[in-house]
Every structure is written in structure tokens, then in C-alpha cells.
Amino acid sequence: MNSLARTIGKLKNGEHCTIVALGDSITEVTFHTRDRLNWVGLLEEAVFEAYGNGVCTLINSGKCASSYAEALTRIERDVLRYEPDLVIIAFGMNDAGDGLEKLPEFQKNVRRTIALIRERCGSEILIRTPNPVVPTHGVSLPENCRAGQCWESPNRPLLKYSAVLVKLADELDCACVDHYTLWTEKKYTVKHPVADSQGLWIRMGDAIHPGYIGHLAFFRELAPLFGVSKYFPWEEMENKIL
Fold this sequence. Notes:
Elements: H1 5-12, E1 17-23, H2 39-51, E2 56-62, H3 68-72, H4 75-78, E3 86-90, H5 103-121, E4 124-128, H6 158-171, E5 175-177, H7 179-184, H8 212-226
């Protein structure tokens, strides 16, 4: 995992920096978090708590149904004109919906996106992989899938797309948080069956979009890269269950 040394250095020195979060509906503020902060808002709050007032401008450039390909059509408006110090790129869920046959084109779009940002702005890059699809209890479940467990749909091969993102991040010297792996390897244990949270379902707003708990998990997986606490002063208890 590569560091964000230049951006963090500016924050620590009290120098203003601009961060852009470029993503899809899991980045844009939507109803899935039920009027609570999503991962972008939580990160902005944590940076404020750690580094102070007015030190960082964090711009949410999420757009529902977006992808690496779609983002290239709006990258001038939504990223480059801000000349950011750091761009957090958070796609994959919609890209994977194109199937394995589009994987080579996906890789080209990832490379082109990073090249454009670096050429125009010299920004540091943080790549985020998507969360897995998590089917819900009470509906028809895919074969060999239990409620609350990740499901690798043949029509949305997120495992392969996420693996490509991790590989490209390493090759292109980008920081990376592999949420897909962190979530799919997550194990919940409960003492009493009545307390069963249906595994990952507690993190979800629906089968694809995380709810507030999922966005809180995202943030806590991102926090170490930014040198901020995983827990907020306004939380009643630091119960580290996520």
C-alpha cells in the first residue's frame, strides 16, 4: 500500500489542500445512508478533527450509475479544474456489470484516468475497490448463497475487477484500499442465534449500496492512510465491532 505522503505532509503543516472524491452512487450522497454522513462526509469530518478548520477542501464528485468510462466524460468539470492535491477514485460496481469481456477496456480506462489526472494536476491518487454484492434475507437468494454473505454474480464479476484495481494501483504507484477483500474476509461470530446480524447485511442499504454502517466501515478502513482516528469524539463508545 503506497502512502499519501505529500498530501498528509501538507495537512500536518497546516497548508491548505484539496481532495476530490470521484465515484458512483456509493460516493454520491444518496438515500442509502438515511440522511447520515457517507464515507466522504465521515472522512471530511475526521480530517477537520485531526488537522483543523479550513485546512482541507474535500469535494464530492460522485455520480449515480457512473464508472471509469463515464467519469472520463466529466473529468474536466468534476476533477481537473480543482487542481487537487489528492484524487480518491472509487469505481468498480458499475464497471463490473459489463462482464469479463470488458475487463481489458476497463483497465485502459483506469490507466487513462490516472494519466490525465497526473499530467494535468500532478495529484496523488488513492484507488478504492468496491464492496461486494450482499443479498438480503427474505428474498429469493442465488444458488449456494446465504443472506448476509457476499455473492459473486457471473454478471457482475467484482472479484476480478477489484483484483485488477489492486494490481494496477501497485503498478502505477497509487495508494489503494481494497474494501472488497476486507469485506469478503470479514467474519462475524455471535454467541446467541437471536443476535445474528446476517453477517455483512448489517452494513448494507440494499444488496449493492452500503448504508450508514457500511460507510462507517469504509471510513475506518481509510482512516489509517490519512493519519486520523477511526473513532470520533461524538461517538458514545469506541466499540470497535467494525
